[in-house]
Amino acid sequence: MKALTYHGSKDVRVESVPDPVLLQPDDIILRVTATAICGSDLHLYRGKIPEVHDGDILGHEFMGIVEDAGPGVTAVRKGDRVVIPFVIACGQCFHCRLDEYSACETTNTGKGAAMNQKGIRPPAALFGYSHLYGGVAGGQAEYVRVPMANVGPFAVPDALPDEQVLFLSDILPTGYQAAVDAGVGAGSTVAIFGAGPVGLMAAACCRMLGAAEIFMVDHHPYRLQFAQRAYGVIPIDFDEQDDPAGIIVEQTQGRGVDVSIDAVGFEAKGSRLETALTTLKLEGSSGAALRQCIAATRRCGTVSVPGVYAGFIHGFLFGDAFDKGLTFKMGQTHVQKLMPELLEHIGNGRLDPQAIITHRLPLAEAARAYAIFDGKEEDCRKVVLTP
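Request: output the structure for the sequence above.
Response:
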């Protein structure tokens, strides 16, 4: 089969690789009908995530048709059309029983990214996201082996096209969890840092949940313009405004917003010092977006972090967070828990995920698609690939 494989920083190739086979009784083989490039895939593409090996198949947003199923699979059957959550969970462990699927204790053969683990088990395995998270082959391919198929694959109605349900695999539940974790509801004021795919889905979900005012901070005018048009955000371009948090506080009676959402993560554009520190591996992540979130949020408000972070951060300003009495919510998404509810919102028209798609390319052109998405060429917001 053909698949998108990693060969070093900004070197990905569509190559012929062996077809996947069933390994466990509860495996399925999925024929991929649609897959997407996620913003967090760019961390891999840029060589920022450890333990990505030459030849690894990338991709964790995908869906398709069940081609084959092991004898232990009871939740789906051959021919079913399903979306696959990017988190691989067993459904039976301590955390899965609490619906904390991204903390599943049994699926990850890697060690995770925590530096000070004290022997605690790693989090769940993820599709196509390095050997820290299990080294499981990803979905930017013609076929995928999907383990734990009684817990993950989610059947979707034929009436909804692939592009409308594909993002149930990651960015839609990620944006939704960020909003729900932060307590966004009727009348909430929100600041979202990052107008990439997750930030846009967070804006859509905040609007659906009744947020009264949404500020969105980014430095790509075309993304801000889309968010303003689609979700009614108040755009702030940080290339033009040195201190977005200051503007947000000024426009909220000097208090700040109820909720800030960091949809940027560890590659946030920071100062020259931060860039140098991360280059020299003296800092694990840039703290620029987090500092802005802390500054923009009102006392006793909440900072929600769906953006990926790793390692340590200088200048975190924890004292400011304490002084303001802030609550932090963060982490990978418990996708399986959220998929049924979000499908209902798509079906009744309250959410329109496909609106953010700008580029549709065949899998054969995936390497070019990565370059377009990474370079923000052609006003690219989101790329969908079809094998």
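The two ends are 10 Å apart (CA to CA).
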